Amino acid sequence: MTGAAKKACIALGGFSHESNSFAPSQDVGLDHFLSRRDRPPLLPGARMLDELGSGAFPTTGFLQAIGQDHALLPLAWASGGAGGMVSDEAFEHVCGELVSRLAGAPRPDAIYLELHGAMATPRLDDPEAELLRRVRAVAGEQVPIVVTLDYHANLSPAFARMIDGAVVYRTYPHVDRVACGRIAAGLVRRLLVRGRSAGVAIAHLPFLIPLHAQSTLDGPSRRIVDRSLADAGEVVSRCYAAGFPLNDRHWCGPAVMVHADSQSAADEACASLLRAVLDEAPHFEAALWPMDAAVEEAMRRSSAPGTGPVLLADVQDNPGAGAGSDTTGLLAALVRAQAQGALLGILCDAAAAAAAHAAGEGASIDIALGRPPFAGRFVVERLGDGRFVSTGSVAGGLRMDLGPMALLRIGGTRVVVSTTRMQAFDPAPFHHLGADPARAAILVLKSTCHFRADFGPLSRDVLLVEAPGDAAADPARYPYRRLRPGVRPGPAA
């Protein structure tokens, strides 16, 4: 492109949240999106470029890959992580930030949006489709739109029709978010030349897949994702989303979605990928260990010759699925069993963290920790301000602010306590308090799958545990109100 040639204008923005419709916590309000936690706060306009040029988000990869031959129009970007439903006020505010900047600028040649696909609000069944409807109303029918989506997206036909290409994360744990942003940049470049996709097809599976059975490291999910990457000249994008079963929406569940240069190519690719998922249905495994049996087994295995901790995944108190990250079932089980060398994290209890800071390192404090309250005398081993940079494969390089933190010890168990929730997918919060997960005999992590990326390789064994929490592993336990009839709670149900 010569210096005199007009650069194509690409608008970019993002709005993502994974909403647990069944979480007992109140709606996720605007303040949540305006504060820094384990991710940046709402970034309006050019602040997107300043903050997301490096990091672990798809927009980072998009910015790295789009090149200098395009003019960028940054709109607004917000990521809320996971929690309860997004309040209507927060949804309207963030949408307004994004759409108003789009309306106030010359019409772009293409649009890229970083979305999630499993947002819920009290008023809207399909919030992301509503956001796209507003974007499309301003941009017009000729502007191509490309999105990146979480692997747990719940895709709707209305959503599929308003975009021209998508990149769904291909990994769980999500270690490819930046790479997916780079792929999205390639789709935008293609559509700038060829125009909007002429064909779109979407199909839904008649069952739900529990989160802990969705890992792409091996098994059926790995094989399905590999099929979704098959090359086809007319296909713009071929996506498989495993779905987020804790999201009470009509189109909740796994789906396949294809955009292509022709409707026939979209239909054929969609049907082929759908058959692949259906063929894998009998192979999904979702076994969980009972809590006390898991602790007993971990103690037995950790005493055998070998290196590395036995890892217990507290899958139902995973804040990455909207849980409170504050339940004490496994802590109580460890203390009852007099386990030694156990390290548990990350338990969110602002009052306990404050009490530890008030007492100081080396002090003993009598507190009731977590939910239900676990009363005991804890030794304050280490304190931290909760500000550190993540180092792991899932979200490395991010500036974190979890508020005051403390490493507490009771008996043979140490507990990493934070003021703000964060899933235990990164070793940095532990090292922030001087705790080395690799040296623990038993490592208890509040995470469903993301822990596997960095903690899995250092562990001798991994047990998935069914302990109390707000992110029930079995979809049959969810009181759905919006889910379409006939959907089975599991692949083999």
Task: Please tell me about this protein's structure.
The chain has 493 residues and is of the alpha/beta class. It has two domains: 8-283, no CATH class; 289-473, no CATH class. It has helices at residues 30-34, 47-52, 58-65, 88-103, 127-139, 157-161, 177-194, 219-228, 263-280, 291-302, 329-336, 350-359, 428-432, and strands at residues 8-19, 43-44, 70-83, 110-115, 145-149, 165-168, 199-204, 235-241, 255-260, 289-290, 310-314, 342-348, 364-369, 374-384, 387-389, 399-401, 405-410, 413-418, 442-445, 461-466. It has a nine-stranded mixed beta sheet with strand order 10-20-11-19-12-18-17-14-13. Strands 2-3-1-4-5-6 form a six-stranded mixed beta sheet, with helices on both faces. α3 packs across α7 (177-194), α4 runs parallel beside α5 and α8 runs antiparallel to α9 (263-280). 57% of the residues are buried.
